[in-house]
Amino acid sequence: MNKKKVRVRFAPSPTGPLHIGGVRTALFNYLFAKKYNGTFILRIEDTDQNRYVKGAEDYIINSLKWCNIKIDEGVGVGGKYGPYRQSERKDIYKKYAEQLITAGFAYYAFDTPEELEEMREKLKAEKSENQQYNFLSRTSMRNSLTLNPDEVEKLIESKTPFVIRLKVPEDENVEFTDVVHGKIIFKSSQLDDKILFKSDGMPTYHLANVVDDHLMKISHVIRGSEWINSTPSHVLLYKYLGWENEMPEFAHMPLILKPNGKGKLSKRDGDALGFPVFPLEWTNTETKEVSSGYRESGYFPDAFINILALLGWNPGTEQEIFSISELTEIFSLDRIGKSGSRFDPEKAKWFNHQYLINKNNTELASLYQDVLKNKGIEASDELVIKIVDLIKERASFISDFWEQSFFFFQKPTNYDAKAVKKNWKENTPNMMKELLTVIENIEGFNAENIEGEVKNYIEKNELGFGKVLNPLRLCLVGSGKGPSLFHIAEIIGKAEVVERINNGIEKIKK
RNA sequence: GGUCCGUUCGUCUAGCCAGGUCAGGACGUCAGGUUUUCAUCCUGGUAACACGGGUUCGAAUCCCGUACGGACUACCA
Description:
Blueprint: E1 7-10, H1 20-35, E2 39-42, H2 56-66, E3 73-74, H3 90-102, E4 106-109, H4 113-125, H5 149-157, E5 163-166, E6 173-178, E7 182-187, E8 195-197, H6 205-215, E9 220-224, H7 231-240, E10 249-253, E11 256-257, E12 282-283, E13 290-291, H8 301-309, H9 324-330, E14 341-342, H10 345-358, H11 361-374, H12 381-391, H13 401-405, H14 417-423, H15 428-440, H16 447-460, H17 465-477, H18 485-492, H19 494-507
Parallel strand pairs: 1-2, 2-3, 9-10, 11-14
Antiparallel strand pairs: 4-5, 5-8, 6-7, 12-13
Helix pairs in contact: 1-9, 6-7, 8-10, 11-12, 15-19, 16-18, 17-19
The structure holds one RNA strand.
């Protein structure tokens, strides 16, 4: 790797929420920057006014914030290479587009959409290899290459709409070395004369991207592999603008694929896949349709980052759990894989479980308190910490907590039919009545004492643990599941235990 | 159609560059164990080098071809 200062950018267009592929691109850029003490820049590529979505920019910033990806420079934080919103840099691009024309590397084109369509149809009918606006077809179109200079000037003066196109050479090899894929070679005859400047006065991605990366001194372009095919046009631009020697290195990362089959994951997939594709919940501004987010689904940001980091990259060791700061230590571009990966929601869940069980009870309890408050339940922190400690091993998300622990806060309202059938026998009510006396007489109502006394009762009467404990669980919890019965009893307290047993005797019928 | 990229268990992947491993790990799944129950946990099993040629004593690894998949092919990014 060369020794120039690492400056990387994440450059989304604000056409909607970021999806996990976008977050991963941001993450890899960020990790790479931090690893080499470089700068991570957020640039907003809003050159398409038609696709601009209000709120998308804030969404992007908020998503990065939630993920703990800190922006060093760019939209929202500033910096000396600003502005960082392309719509605010219009004049800059114009200057370079004109420079290219003067130097003979670009030209004006006046073709209307209809004329373009006609050309494509014609080439299609001729069974031409491709239907591009290129070195061949440009000779029969209305542009400053075919028109004489007077006409061109007249058209421009009369405000005829025009675009500026890149004049791609007829027969040259255009090559670049991709950090992930190695050397990639294109024949210029296969490239089209890309539009650099649109008739609305805005540059296209291709021009803006190259100009900004150069002006912002970007050292490495880390982006999705959907950009590989347009990279040769960018390489040509660097050359024609005289920046060939300062061209950034390119690293095209493999795409994230749909889990069920085909194609790259896209924003449109929304919730259709059975798992969120967005980091944060998003409400479509037009349809009001709500798409779920990882945050709202209960993922921890550090778990989410961990999941994404291991999608298309791996450390080469068997370690799988990494904090973001560990990642910034060991991340490297050369361990990015070449092939696309599918997102596995099951493994994602497992990751979150790992993070959940490693969090301390106080933090978990405070998160759970929010859920409880929403349900109108008041409980002391002390109590909730105890409960969380008992159930966290059994949960992947904070949202699993309620199902695992509702019985601490309310009496069972119904009794699981299967468990009743299996465990509530003819003589069970009598047993429960006996047990009731045992329980009422326990001094110091804690798990240890309860366990001692109950087991003592069972052994003395030669009853068997399952015969007594299962029905008791049914009374206290309403089902055959849950954590240690004696701890449950301790937490809900003697009076409540007694009441629930009485309720059980009365309500549970075979 | 054209151009470019890719292909190791169901999934994420290690191994490939510098040929020699019973092709390793994780998720899932299955079985057993632990537990009063369920879950966790522990132990074990399951399952892959896309195909065909070559080079070589030896190929997942190097070369060629085929198949399949993907991306791009807009006055979108």
